[in-house]
Design goal:
Layout lengths: L6 E6 L4 H13 L4 E6 L9 H11 L3 E4 L13 H21 L4 E6 L22 H16 L3 E6 L2 E2 L6 H7 L5 E5 L3 E2 L2 E2 H16 L6 E4 L6 E2 H14 L8 E5 L31 H12 L1
Parallel strand pairs: 1-2, 1-3, 3-4, 4-5, 5-10, 6-9, 7-12
Antiparallel strand pairs: 8-11
Helix pairs in contact: 1-6, 2-3, 3-4, 5-7, 7-8
Length: about 300
């Protein structure tokens, strides 16, 4: 039985791969004095201020994790208002309501707030310059939250995958029976396992409960940089080693120009995650995570 005085975490966006990962990691690692309540978009839509007020007054959480987002990167180019409502306006309203009740907000953002012109991993303090509607709306959400709620933690992440939802790993496995695949080889970043990101967020909740947190922007991503081409090769290599596929498809390296998309993606978006070491949080070991989750996906 969780007492009112214990830490209660409210998660918005429970059905996404991050939301589902938070629920799973909480069940594995939570202590008796922590409780978690989570809602999907039908139960608590970030674009519905009245719904947010109702849930906060009903549940009286000690911290809110916003795991909801408009993530259809290319579709956002033709639906800028829809993306902005979720990634910017909704975050701003959530931040305002939370601030009025003295509640901190942990908000998940993206490497797409950067332009990709760097040669070293981006730090949380580096200049942002998003090149897509998705990136621009996510940055606007960050800035709005910073303005309306001083008790905020913004955690930027990248290339998220898991056993849940739709992601690059599942797409590659679905195409593994092809003889040859063409995958972009000139965009570099760090894949991130959603389960590790979930652990990171729950660790930050614990730090908040102990009043041992410094508000601001943080980065959390994978521990090793690769390209989408390299990521695909790693997926097929591990799948073959675990006997999920008999033959690895040939992965042809192509350029961004050879695979045009509506949204411009950063050519380089590795994130420097050292700041989270203050809380004992290490980057995601994405290769290990791949080995662990492929049996679950299969």
């Amino acid at each position: 039985m969780v007492r009112d005085s214990d830490m209660k975490i409210l998660v918005i966006g429970k059905n996404g791969q991050l939301g589902r990962s938070i629920t799973e990691q909480f069940s594995l690692s939570a202590t008796d004095n922590m409780a978690l309540v989570s809602y999907d978009s039908s139960e608590c839509n970030i674009t519905d201020k009245e719904q947010i007020v109702q849930r906060i007054q009903q549940d009286r959480p000690d911290v809110i994790i916003n795991a909801s987002a408009y993530t259809k990167v290319d579709q956002a180019e033709s639906e800028p208002q829809e993306a902005d409502q979720v990634n910017h306006i909704g975050v701003m309203e959530l931040g305002k309501v939370a601030a009025a009740h003295g509640i901190p907000v942990i908000h998940v953002s993206t490497d797409y707030v950067f332009d990709g012109d760097a040669v070293f991993p981006y730090t949380p303090e580096d200049q942002t310059n998003p090149q897509s509607v998705y990136g621009k709306t996510k940055l606007a959400g960050e800035q709005a939250l910073q303005q309306v709620n001083p008790q905020h933690l913004i955690v930027r992440t990248a290339w998220v995958f898991s056993e849940f939802g739709n992601n690059f790993v599942k797409t590659m496995l679905r195409l593994s029976d092809k003889e040859q695949l063409s995958v972009v080889a000139d965009q570099y970043g760090c894949p991130t396992y959603a389960g590790d990101l979930a652990k990171c967020l729950l660790t930050l909740c614990l730090a908040i409960s102990k009043h041992e947190v410094t508000w601001g922007v943080y980065h959390f991503s994978g521990d090793a940089e690769t390209s989408w081409h390299g990521f695909a090769q790693a997926i097929f290599s591990i799948a073959k080693s675990q006997n999920f596929i008999d033959v690895m498809p040939k992965v042809k390296a192509i350029s961004t120009e050879e695979y045009p998309t509506l949204a411009t993606r950063p050519k380089f978006s590795s994130l420097e995650c050292q700041k989270l070491a203050l809380y004992g949080i290490q980057p995601s070991n994405w290769r290990l995570a791949l080995r662990n989750i492929l049996p679950k996906i299969q």
